[in-house]
């Protein structure tokens, strides 16, 4: 299609659908300027479409409204619409709210609850109280080898439970 024919077709599209497209974009964006920008971008895309003149009226109208809707969705998804700003320097330090620590503790406590009482007792003594194998053996009145065995199998079971919860990798 020659440029003059394209201009005529684009002008006709704008005259027939421009106001409706703008109202549609305004309903989606609730911002007059953004709606104008969206319609302008859609008409520019229509201008660049080589099949512009080949489309029948209903197909052209559907294409324009679909393109408008898609462009608004793209703007919503973009960082600019969420008012995110890029900075050259990141903040000096992040402020942690402790949520991840609480969640980790909760997951570990739940996983520990699924272990046998024997495994849970040696793991708690070793890792939460800092007791040595000899101290645990004396306290529980079991041989040190049994303490080591319970630690080994208890930790293995704990890892499997956490993997099932999606906390750790296989």
UniProtKB/TrEMBL annotation:
GO terms for molecular function: DNA binding; sigma factor activity. The keyword Repressor does not apply. SUPFAM superfamilies: Sigma2 domain of RNA polymerase sigma factors, Sigma3 and sigma4 domains of RNA polymerase sigma factors. This is RNA polymerase sigma-70 factor, ECF subfamily. Residues 14-80 form the RNA polymerase sigma-70 region domain. Keywords: DNA-binding, Sigma factor, Transcription, Transcription regulation. It comes from the Bacteria. Residues 108-157 form the RNA polymerase sigma factor 70 region 4 type domain. InterPro entries: RNA_pol_sigma-70-like (IPR039425), RNA_pol_sigma-70_dom (IPR014284), RNA_pol_sigma70_r2 (IPR007627), RNA_pol_sigma70_r4_t2 (IPR013249), RNA_pol_sigma_r2 (IPR013325), RNA_pol_sigma_r3/r4-like (IPR013324), WH-like_DNA-bd_sf (IPR036388). Belongs to the sigma-70 factor family. ECF subfamily. One of its GO terms (biological process) is DNA-templated transcription initiation. Pfam families: Sigma70_r2, Sigma70_r4_2.
